[in-house]
Amino acid sequence: MSELRRDRVTGDWTIIAPERGHRPHRERRAHDGVVQVPAFDPSCPFCPGNESSLPGIISETRSAGVPGWSARVVPNKYPVLTPEDAGKSTSSIVPGFGYHEVIIETHRHDGDLAALALGEATDVVRTYVGRYLELKSRPGVSSVVVFRNHGRRAGASLVHPHSQIIAMGQPSPRLAATTSWARDVYSDTGRCPTCMEVEAELSQQLRVVEVTTSFVLLVPFAAASPYELCIAPRRHAASFGQIDDAEIVQLAALLQQSLGRLNGVLGRPEYRFAIESGGDDKRHAAYNHWRLRIVPQVTIEGGFELGSGLPINPSCPEDDACALREVLNKEGA
Ligand SMILES: [Zn+2]
Ligand SMILES: [Zn+2]
Question: The pTM is what?
Answer without folding.
Answer: 0.93
